[in-house]
Specification:
The protein is of the alpha/beta class. It is built from 23 helices and ten strands. It has four domains: 105 residues, Rossmann fold, CATH 3.40.50; 161 residues, Alpha-Beta Plaits; 104 residues; 100 residues, Homeodomain-like (Arc Repressor Mutant, subunit A). 61% of the residues lie in helices and 12% in strands. The strands form two sheets. A five-stranded parallel β-sheet has the order 2-1-3-4-5, with helices on both faces. A five-stranded mixed β-sheet has the order 7-8-6-9-10, sandwiched between helices. Helix 3 packs parallel to helix 4 and helix 17 crosses helix 18. The longest helix has 39 residues.
Length: 520
């Protein structure tokens, strides 16, 4: 790596050059520049990976050097060395991607640490760019094979994959997860189409494959429906695992993006069969569009299957609302007896009924502002759902487990809200005092970390932010109704540092205390 040191003080460069351990850091060459103009010329010519640069220099400042690197999109890591500190300068430096901000006199241990961080950051960016290129190749390979550019010709597919340096071959086996999501409401609520498409693709990739990127996920944005295909090697996950992940993913998409996709999973198939499968799968997936949130296996759903008896979801939801466990379980038992008597559809029927049952509980929790993910994370629920497809008796037992867990989560949430309200009420009465997390946690007999997490979930801000909000609200009132000086108001509200009080006041109100008083 090359390091450029840029400073109009020659002695600073000399000292830095003598103190930097080039061998340990892997720096093979140190370049020198005494003003910003020479620095920019040297950067363009030598492309040093690392730059230590002064701020105030003749001809061009350090910020102008940084802007030059930013605008030219050069692969450099730059840290500033300066004799003064400036908040406005720091903001500008961060905006254009400066790595560190070192003040003179320099601590050479800190300089060594900064250079180490810069080297790690540079290598990470280089790796990310390389990974992004690989992802693009993989994504393109899946798309061309799926869209039938080579048909089912294994020889052509293998030749294509080999040319692109892709490791797998035409006979490698993949689970195919297809999803269709109605994005109309999400776009209406404020999501930009491109941001939503990108976010959904990344979310699918990370949850289903465990990778970050878009190598294994194909998106087909349409005017209303977003279609996605994700490919998971059959050596990495089982179908049972993928069903659980898709159920969780449906809840995540609904809670965070405001879309609720329907999923269709295909048992592993060799890559050369993908294009033939894709044609029929697209038709079946489109027919599922009216069943958001459900997870089907390929072949489970057909238009002619609409005569399948279904659980009364309204009845189950009312039973949850009214806390009627016997009615909830009885509805599932009677349904099970019906499908047993009719002897139709076999395991497929049990699987679909389990999907309905799970979705009723998930929707009930989501409607009550409780993360539905907690339902599928519970070991008892996971085991009950796994067994539910074996017999009607197991399905009924699963209904009891899901009911108990759903109600327990609901009651736990109510208790948590009571806990937060107690703390909130205490803060409102004592916000002028020096309150600590530990003190507040003792009031409600929970740990400080748990209380912090709970408070943020329920109120939307942490406890310190809430205290500041109350204090600044009272400060505004006192600034208007009294002639008391600002430092006394700050002290009476618990701020021992007038500068910190002013910073907090400006952050919340957009003005300093004096500006606010004069304006009003």
């Amino acid at each position: 790596m090359k390091l450029l040191i840029c400073d109009d003080d020659i002695s600073t460069i000399d000292v830095l050059q003598s103190q930097i351990d080039c061998q340990e850091l892997g720096i093979r060459k140190i370049l020198r520049a005494y003003n910003g103009e020479v620095a920019m010329e040297m950067i363009a010519r030598e492309l040093p990976e690392l730059i230590l640069c002064d701020i105030e220099m003749p001809k061009n400042t350090g910020l102008e050097v940084l802007r030059f690197i930013y605008n030219e999109e050069l692969p450099c890591e730059l840290s500033f060395i300066t004799s003064f500190e400036s908040f406005e300068f720091a903001k500008e430096a961060i905006r254009y991607g400066a790595s560190r901000y070192l003040t003179k006199p320099l601590d050479f241990g800190e300089v060594h640490e900064a250079l180490s961080d810069m080297i790690r950051s540079f290598r990470k960016k280089q790796h990310s760019e390389s990974t992004a290129d690989q992802d693009l190749v993989l994504n393109s390979s899946f798309r061309e094979i799926r869209d039938g550019y080579f048909g089912s010709d294994r020889e052509k597919i293998d030749s294509f994959l080999q040319r692109n340096n892709v490791k797998f071959r035409s006979d490698s086996r993949w689970h195919v997860i297809s999803a269709l999501a109605d994005t109309q409401e999400a776009v209406r609520s404020g999501w930009e189409r491109e941001v939503l498409d990108f976010s959904l693709g990344r979310t699918f990739e990370e949850n289903l494959t465990g990778r970050i990127g878009n190598a294994y996920t194909l998106l087909e944005p349409r005017e209303r429906f977003e279609k996605l295909n994700c490919f998971v090697s059959d050596s990495e996950k089982t179908m049972t695992e993928l069903v659980g992940i898709c159920q969780e993913l449906a809840a995540t998409c609904r809670d965070f993006f405001g879309v609720c996709p329907v999923f269709m999973l295909r048992e592993s198939l060799p890559l050369y069969e993908l294009s033939a499968y894709h044609i029929e799968a697209s038709r079946e997936l489109y027919a599922m569009r009216m069943h958001p949130g459900l997870v089907f296996r390929y072949g489970d759903f057909r238009e002619e299957g609409n005569d399948i008896p279904k659980l009364d979801e309204d009845l189950l939801t009312r039973a949850l609302r009214d806390r009627l466990r016997s009615r909830f379980v009885t509805a599932v038992r009677e349904y099970g007896e019906r499908i047993t008597f009719e002897r139709r559809h076999g395991e497929r029927m049990l699987r679909l009924s389990l999907l309905q049952l799970t979705e009723v509980c998930r929707s009930f929790l989501s409607d009550n502002k409780i993360p539905a993910s907690r339902l599928v994370e519970d070991p008892k629920a996971l085991e009950a759902c796994r067994k539910a497809e074996e017999s009607v008796g197991d399905l009924v037992e699963c209904a009891g487990v899901l009911y108990d867990l759903t109600i327990a989560l609901l009651e736990d949430s109510a208790h948590n809200m009571d806990t937060v309200l107690i703390v909130k009420d205490f803060i409102q009465k004592h916000y002028r005092e020096d309150l600590s997390r530990d003190q507040l946690a003792e009031i409600v007999y929970v740990t400080p970390n748990y209380l912090s997490k709970l408070f943020r979930e329920k109120i939307g801000m942490n406890m310190r932010e809430y205290v500041n909000l109350l204090r600044i609200s009272e400060a505004k009132r006192l600034l208007l109704s009294t002639d008391e000086n600002i430092s006394d108001i700050a002290s009476n509200l618990g701020y021992n540092n007038i500068s910190y009080f002013s910073t907090v006041f400006r952050k919340i109100s957009g003005l300093s205390p004096a500006e606010w008083r004069n304006q009003k």
